[in-house]
Backbone:
């Protein structure tokens, strides 16, 4: 039996890596974890957390406007970008400290270095050049923004990474992409007073979300003043006299202080030594894993964004917990990807769980769709022209609610709770016999008694 320096070596100190290392160490395993940048990874350092803080910051100007309808006179307001960045950086540093404290408390060895594989059991620590060995290795190196290297002028553009550290807030921004990161940043920058344009190749933003929500959000964003150019792409970015000049496929010439690319994320596998260890990757460079997150090399697992399955923090953490069960608790456990609640922190927000009407229409012969669009109570006095939308997709045969979709305030919070009901297999009748909580927006979810329409064989009747 060969002896190794460690029972487990984890490469990458993000959501999935830290969870794997901390829990394995707390089980008494000898664990080391290496991080090349900052502990906490994308989510804490330049993803979910700082993004949500920016979302909050960007909502205040609407709060100030709304206050007038409730009798408040708000004095002159001003926004200081540098103050926001400093406050955000403080909070991120605090969280990073907590991540390290958790690892240290479990007796995991914390290494601040890039790590690369030398063979299936050997890892090179780049800071010192030293090599160490481990019985089991977890690759949790995450992903990075796709740089769109084919775009002339791509080097003049930023990604979400830089958006968190801009020296100054630009007067205008062009964001390329139609996924949730592009949409969220368009709302953030617009809310902070930046003239914002979104350019997206597809016919509608947020592919894979329910069509009604996609359209509803698009309309709401345009009504706020965000310009959205669908079915168009940037062909060239150059530096002009007043910022950047962007030429598009449809022949438009746009100007912007900053161009941000949000065109997907690539798995972080370059230079990782995967070929030396014999670990297979797919055509996108993502590590190929089986249902248990095991690679083709028996003692090497990969989890989180680097495997290009579902790129969300709770999913990376769940995969880590399944790895622990499989490897250390003699309880082989497959990650469960069914019914993942998700949000888009746009303004208005999207919260969703389960199938969109379009997807459900392909899977079930007949659907009942319950749909409500209404003005939330707060908007009556604030005078804000905004609508909330709620939609339940029900399989007519089993009465099961197979999708729930919300556009409006706190949609993400509601989607988390709806996730429990869908996971529990609740039927529309369960929703109907649940008492409404009045006055809330969420009560609409239990008071939509008659279907708005039916869908048979994928067609609305
Ligand atoms: C702007 C943005 C907003 C997001 N918002 C949300 C959200 O609202 N909700 C949500 O659920 N998800 C969100 N995500 C996605 C989420 O951040 C990721 O799914 C999650 O962080 C994946 O965790 P991970 O452990 O796989 O990788 P990561 O968190 O990316 O961690 C990987 C770590 O590995 C390190 N690393 C890489 N290579 C090496 C190496 N060779 N040696 C040592 N260290 C290395 C990296 O520096 C990094 O710290 C967002 C992402 C972005 C970019």
Residues:
């Amino acid at each position: 039996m060969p002896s190794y320096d460690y029972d487990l070596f984890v490469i990458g100190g993000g959501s999935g890596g830290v969870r794997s290392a901390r829990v394995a160490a707390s089980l008494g395993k000898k664990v080391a974890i290496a991080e090349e940048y900052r502990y906490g990874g994308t989510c804490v350092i330049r993803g979910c957390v700082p993004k949500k803080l920016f979302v909050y910051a960007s909502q205040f100007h609407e709060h100030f406007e709304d206050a007038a309808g409730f009798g408040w006179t708000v004095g002159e307001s001003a926004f200081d970008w540098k103050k926001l960045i400093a406050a955000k950086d403080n909070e991120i540093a605090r969280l990073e400290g907590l991540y390290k404290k958790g690892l240290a408390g479990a007796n995991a060895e914390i290494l601040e270095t890039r790590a690369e594989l030398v063979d299936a059991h050997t890892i090179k620590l780049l800071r010192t050049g030293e090599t160490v060995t481990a019985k089991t290795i977890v690759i949790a190196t995450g992903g990075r923004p796709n740089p769109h290297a084919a775009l002339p002028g791509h080097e003049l553009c930023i990604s979400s990474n830089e958006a968190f550290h801009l020296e100054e807030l630009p007067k205008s921004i062009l964001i390329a992409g139609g996924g949730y990161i592009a949409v969220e940043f368009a709302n953030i920058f617009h809310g902070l007073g930046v003239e914002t344009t979104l350019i997206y190749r597809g016919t509608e933003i947020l592919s894979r979300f329910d069509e009604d929500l996609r359209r509803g959000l698009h309309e709401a964003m345009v009504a706020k003043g965000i310009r959205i150019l669908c079915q168009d792409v940037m062909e060239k970015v150059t530096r002009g006299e007043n910022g950047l000049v962007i030429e598009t496929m449809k022949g438009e010439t746009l100007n912007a202080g900053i161009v941000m690319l949000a065109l997907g994320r690539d798995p972080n596998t370059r230079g990782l030594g995967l070929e030396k260890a014999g670990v297979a990757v797919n055509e996108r460079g993502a590590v190929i894993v089986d249902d248990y997150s095991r690679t083709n090399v028996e003692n090497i697992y990969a989890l989180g964004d680097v495997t290009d399955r579902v790129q969300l923090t709770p999913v990376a953490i769940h995969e880590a917990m399944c790895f622990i069960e499989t490897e250390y608790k003699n309880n082989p456990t497959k990650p469960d990807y069914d019914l993942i609640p998700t949000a888009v922190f746009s303004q208005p927000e999207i919260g969703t769980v389960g199938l969109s009407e379009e997807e459900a229409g392909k899977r079930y012969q007949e659907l009942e769709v319950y749909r409500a669009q209404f003005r939330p109570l707060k908007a009556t006095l604030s005078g804000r022209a905004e609508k909330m939308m709620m939609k339940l997709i029900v399989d007519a045969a089993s009465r099961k609610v197979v999708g729930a979709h919300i556009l409006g305030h706190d949609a993400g919070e509601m989607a988390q709770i709806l996730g429990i009901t869908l996971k529990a297999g609740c039927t529309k009748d369960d929703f109907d016999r649940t008492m409404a909580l009045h006055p809330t927006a969420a009560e609409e979810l239990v008071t939509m008694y008659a279907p708005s329409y039916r869908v048979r064989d994928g067609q609305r009747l």
About this structure: The chain has three domains: 6-145+266-328, 154-263, 342-460. The pocket of flavin-adenine dinucleotide is lined by residues 11-17, 34-37, 41-43, 47-48, 51, 114-116, 140-142, 160, 181, 268, 272, 304-306, 311-314, 316 (CB under 6 Å).
